[in-house]
Design brief:
- It is a single chain.
- With 344 residues, the chain is α+β, with helices and mostly antiparallel strands.
- It folds into two domains: 4-223, Jelly Rolls, CATH 2.60.120; 235-343, Arc Repressor Mutant, subunit A (Orthogonal Bundle), CATH 1.10.10.60.
- The chain has twelve helices and 13 strands.
- It has an eight-stranded antiparallel beta sheet, covered by helices on one side. Strands 5-10-7-8-13 form a five-stranded antiparallel beta sheet.
- α3 crosses α5 (207-223).
- The longest helix is centred in the last third of the chain and has 18 residues, at 286-303.
- Residues 244-342 form the HTH araC/xylS-type domain.
- This is AraC-type DNA-binding protein.
- InterPro entries: Homeodomain-like_sf, HTH_AraC, PchR_regulatory_protein, Tscrpt_reg_AraC-type_HTH.
- GO terms for molecular function: DNA-binding transcription factor activity; sequence-specific DNA binding.
């Protein structure tokens, strides 16, 4: 397979030839929009052969672009900037989803009320039982993709074509113990390049190229060895909600010197568990995250008024301007006075 994929023009020509020989239509858009999979606010922005663009109808930005690369194999691209929490419908049996997070974080809750998070640069493989009941984006902004395979309804001619290129769907199914697993891992360099090519392909809007890269991803993932006992943990729903609530409380009282340890103790959580969940949700320690939040807010205040730097420091919880300036420099690489002078 890798030898076949060495030459770009040869790749596309081979795909086209095999598609023609197998009689796989380019215009198959059957059930591209399945109302049962989306909320009532979702609306169709554009639809044509093998292509669908949706708006989730959320606060902020919520765009989903879908390509029908093969019958019952769809490629999804998400472009989000929202704090909304989304609820999904029941998915049919026989669904396999392969997802990659390019930017931001994707938090999901499963039917068993366990929660997990797909972090930037990671990919996941989900069987039907581990497709999310609810999902959200802790950092609000998110870009990512998913290859969704309805393996029960894939036509025989598609399976036959995939076999020509060494793609074994039975192997892919076995990776997920049928449908009952969720796997998350860092993306190695080879798989990263495949996903990156998919992002490039959607910008070019080239269907044949997307088909090629989806096949390459399926081939590669079908060959990897999945470690069932990996380091990615499931977290209890209540613990995740407590972690998010503590973060929101501190953000809403950013000028107060609140003790994270005391806030966590009130919930009955172990402090180490809190740190683990916070890192999973937001990608950094609570102290680093809150300092960055304070400095981003400080940058706005420096440019939108004539308040003294010392007053801004006090409002953000710093006892004096010197400590505030040192923190600001650690994030922006310059002192608050220089930042204000340069940008106004």
């Amino acid at each position: 397979m890798r030898k076949i994929l060495d030459n770009s023009l040869m790749q596309l020509n081979i795909i086209k030839k095999v598609l023609q020989l197998k009689g796989i239509s380019k215009g198959d858009k059957t059930n591209m929009y399945n109302e049962d999979w989306y909320n009532n606010e979702t609306r169709v922005l554009e639809e044509k052969d093998n292509y669908l663009k949706l708006d989730y109808g959320c606060k902020g930005k919520g765009e989903l672009t879908v390509y029908r690369v093969f019958p019952n194999i769809d490629l999804y691209f998400m472009d989000m900037d929202t704090g909304d929490i989304f609820k999904t419908a029941d998915f049919p049996q026989g669904i396999l989803s392969i997802s990659h997070c390019k930017k931001g974080r994707y938090e999901c809750q499963f039917a068993n009320e366990h929660q997990n998070c797909l972090s930037e640069g990671c990919f996941s493989i989900n069987g039907t039982d581990f497709l999310p009941e609810r999902f959200c984006f802790p950092m609000k902004k998110y870009e990512g993709l998913s290859i969704v395979v309805d393996w029960i309804n894939i036509p025989e001619k598609v399976l036959s074509m995939m076999n020509v290129f060494g793609i074994d769907f039975e192997r892919l199914k076995s990776l997920m113990d049928g449908e009952k697993s969720w796997f998350v891992s860092d993306t190695d360099s080879e798989l990263f390049n495949i996903f990156n090519d998919l992002y490039k392909g959607v910008r070019k809007n080239e269907m044949e190229y997307l088909r090629l890269k989806v096949m390459e991803a399926l081939y590669y993932i079908g060959k990897i060895e999945i470690e069932k006992n990996n380091d990615y943990k499931y977290f209890d729903k209540e613990m995740v909600n407590n972690t998010r609530a503590i973060r929101e409380y501190i953000i809403n009282n950013i000028g107060s010197n609140l003790s994270i340890e005391k806030l966590v103790a009130k919930t009955g959580m172990n402090i180490n568990t809190f740190y683990s969940i916070f890192m999973k949700l937001y990608g950094e320690t609570p102290y680093a995250h809150l300092k960055k939040y304070r400095m981003n807010l400080a940058a706005v205040l420096l440019l939108t008024g004539k308040r003294k730097i010392g007053d801004i420091a006090v409002d953000l919880g710093y006892s004096n301007a010197s400590k505030f300036s040192k923190a600001f420099y650690s994030v922006y690489g310059e002192l608050p006075s220089s930042y204000r002078k340069k940008n106004i």
